[in-house]
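Re: duplicated header lines in exported structure tokens

Our pipeline writes sequence and tokens for each protein into one text file. With two proteins the header for the second block appears twice in some exports. Here is an export where it did not happen, for reference. First protein block:
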Amino acid sequence: MMGAEEADAGGMRRAGEPGAAGRGDTAGGRVRRVLARSLEPYADVFRVRRAWRFSAAGLIGRMPMAMLGLGTVLLISAATGRYGVAGSVSAAGSIGYAICAPQSARLVDRYGQRRVLRPLAAIFAVSTLLLIVTVELGAPSWAFFVPGAAAGATMPSLGSMVRARWSALLTGSPRLHAAFSFESVADEVCFIVGPAAVTLLATEVYPAAGVGAAAALCLAGTLWFAAQRDTEPPPAGRPSPADAVSRRGRLAAPGLLVLVPVYVFLGAMFVGIDLSTVAFAQHFGHKPLAGFILGSYALGSATGGLWYGSRHWRAPVERRFAITLALTVGGVGTFWAQPNLVSLTCVIYLCGLTIAPTLIAGFSLVDAQALPGRNTEAMSWLSTGISIGVAAGATAAGFIVDAAGARWGYGFAASCGGASVLFCLAGLRRLNVGAATPQ
């Protein structure tokens, strides 16, 4: 048998020698082997029983995070012609999400995902329906804010709940790194597909179609996710009086004191890039290309996330977080100097490569530091931080772009990124997993 194996190996070597007919096949084979090795960690993760089901359901159910805000703007602006009101209603939804997502996550940790998600998804669907009805009936502008804020407040934070399931299934396993990486890539897929889909539906089908599709996807994905009880983490239950007193005033994870401000500034940076890119493309007379350019940013992030998750890292996770964050912000600092859309597209893709690794490391830090029974709540605070940054940064970036142009908008985005790096470096010791993990 050994001789046959050696003969096969020798045959493969001879096929790759100069002049052999299989030379091209051998090069292609090497590429396939490299790809197979890169994807093997993800294949290994999805060998976990029924893991693909809750991951797929989570992907469908969290599509609205990339659709609802833009869909709201397109719906209201089409009916009223007023972008200011449309943007304000969208911001109200972001603020509602930022306030309520950690509270919903706390209930999930206490009572279980299924018991909280089903009523939450129903209220979200009703709220979006009321928003569509008030707009279609020509109600006063102030009437849009109540259902708009309610929709944002009740949009399920499925990203943190999917990660909580992975954490419960793979605690202590190196596969958890690949699972978190895959979910960050799934987030980027939402931001590649979602904005394009909602824009197409709202502009080519019907103005309310974008918001309606977001509600339908959320309801379908969330109910499918909640129905999968065999992979649901066990609820922690109501804390005892002594535990309730000890928890009072304590963060769900010590590192959140540093990470939440970092993510707030990251959210402001991202929305500054979005608005500046639209203005930059409009300046060159190609406004529709803004979506393609921003999609390249998300595609770069997805590419970087797949590569990052396929490797085993020796460096501490807090150091990786700081390095990838600095690289992300450093790349954004070059956007203002780009001479045209072609160069911006190339640079924005390359700079996107470190976004997902940064977010993956952030979720890994929080997961490692989360207090017992507060894992979902801890991870939801990162999404809350980004939402606060987006809501605050959109207003500031909008005024800057209107007054001074896209390049100054990119400067604003870079300054927000710089602030996030400074917060990270100042609190790096608190992010140390070994020192900060609760006992």
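Second protein block, exported in the same file:
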Amino acid sequence: MAESTAISLTNVSKVFKRYHHPVDRLKEILLPGKQRAEEFWALRDINLEIPKGETIGIIGRNGSGKSTLLQIIVGTLQPTTGNVSVNGRVSALLELGSGFNPEFTGRQNIFFNGRILGLSQAEIETKFDKIAAFADIGEFIEQPIKTYSSGMFVRLGFAVAVHVDPEIFIVDEALAVGDVVFQHKCMRRIKTLMDLGVTTLFVSHDANAVKTLCKSAFMLEQGKVHTSGRPNDVFIDYMKLATQIELQQSEVNIPNNSKPSILNHEDNSQLLTENASRRGSGRATIEHIRIFHENGDLAIASPVFKFDEMITLVTDVCVNASLEDFIIGFFICDKNGNELIGSNTKEENVSMGSLRATDKFAVKFSFRLPLKAGGYSLTVAGAESYTTTTCDWLDNVTIFQVQIPQSGKFITAAINIPMEVSIEKNMGIN
């Protein structure tokens, strides 16, 4: 393995045996020669080369093989076939409580975990106060961790994992359990590790977190690498796949002629990039998408808007099957796919009510673009409710530009909001 490579996996596969009855395992041992188990391949021929210092996102549906892959990299599982090479000290936060002894106190587990990760007693003593302060669980640090809540588990586990000078840091969805304040604290710490050149594997279903933290990502499906590339592209592919599988498992019966089709590129009254992608059940379809400038002019392909311009987004919808209700909304995303501006009819307290097949309607959203100069994309989607399969979802409908403010103001954040600033000098000085 090259010195610049942190993790290398070559043709890695992992099979588990599933027995229909517990006694079958014993029979297989006592009566060799007859297979009594069903084989389940959690991973199949995984090939990965992760350079040092990279932050990689890993996504996939439940059961796709993510946790098995991480355990093999960490070393708590051995692959059935293939080779794994890891170059550097690994610190991992996998499932809740992993690596902890429930009978030990938080203090004892800090020392226990630190020694497992290769630190000396003196090194752990030096780091203990920082770990305890980061975990911030108070007097519970002296209590057996079997008395901890799931949030306390995460706090202590993350605090230990990020303070043992890791060269490779792995976190598997555990942060979803912590409170909001601690999640922000963890994200800042992860960014610090990234700045220090720590190789990071980040497993999460939080699209924004992966897009913000990771330079690249890959998706696992049925134990294989299904897609890899830019985080936003991988998440779009993930959502397509998840929608397709959900539809296959449902009993929705829509006529073939009402399935979604890509909008007509030759129609200048609507916007659609060549990179646009679409998914959905087809129970309702978005037929046209138009954007109007503040002066009422229709925006053409790849439009350019003034800073803070008031624009109007119009979506024309055709209903293809009876619906109890319908929610339509949009997102304005940056180049990494982070959602900056967005809303929908439900959140704006606008109800469609019940709809019949062949009903048609138009929805208008008017809003400002207080965005710093740059390129952005538009996503538009509609669904019967928050819990049902999306009827129609279009990513990258158009790519547009926002100009620099004419005032010359330099905007540092993604979104600029009105602000009042005042200065009072010599206050409280006698």
